[in-house]
TrEMBL record:
This is Glycosyl hydrolase family 92 N-terminal domain-containing protein. One of its GO terms (molecular function) is carbohydrate binding. GO terms for biological process: glycoprotein catabolic process. It comes from the Eukaryota. InterPro entries: GH-type_carb-bd (IPR014718), GH92_N (IPR041371), PNGase (IPR050883). Residues 2-103 form the Glycosyl hydrolase family 92 N-terminal domain. One of its GO terms (cellular component) is cytosol.
Length: 140
């Protein structure tokens, strides 16, 4: 139980030599964040758009650059050293679920990918469907 359960979106850090060149995150509505991460590393100009849908309303969204000590509460932020902090009020034993979609094209496509590939909140069912689809493809 908490009035301030947090989840951090770290858009600065990458894997290996990947370096963020521009990032953006914004609160689209009461349960959705969207944004992008442009980087260079294994690709000269890699662009990844994302959407994150939560199973419950966001209580507060805060964005900050890593040089900030507190950050500012804003509906959107951009920069190459960016973090987004989502805050929820949770009950005893409550689980906050998260669905993330990605796209190399746009945040709109990332949202469409969530709707097409993750229509519900049943993770076990989603895993079973993905497993069956892969097995069908691998048997060709």
């Amino acid at each position: 139980k908490s009035d301030a359960a947090h989840l951090v979106f770290d858009l600065q850090q990458g894997i290996g030599w990947d370096l963020a060149t521009d990032t953006h995150i914004e609160k689209l509505n009461d349960s959705t964040l969207v944004g992008y991460r442009y980087s260079k590393g294994w690709a000269v100009d890699q662009r990844l758009y994302f959407a994150a849908v939560f199973s419950k309303p966001i209580r507060q969204f805060t964005s900050l650059q890593v040089t900030d000590t507190l950050g500012t509460t804003t509906p959107a932020a951009s920069g190459n050293r960016l973090k987004g902090v989502v805050t929820f009020a949770t009950k005893e034993g409550e689980v906050v679920k998260l669905k993330v979609g990605i796209s190399p094209v746009s945040t709109t496509n990332a949202i469409a990918n969530i709707r097409a590939e993750l229509p519900g909140w049943n993770f076990t069912k989603t895993v079973a469907q993905a497993d069956a689809a892969w097995n069908q493809e691998l048997q060709k």
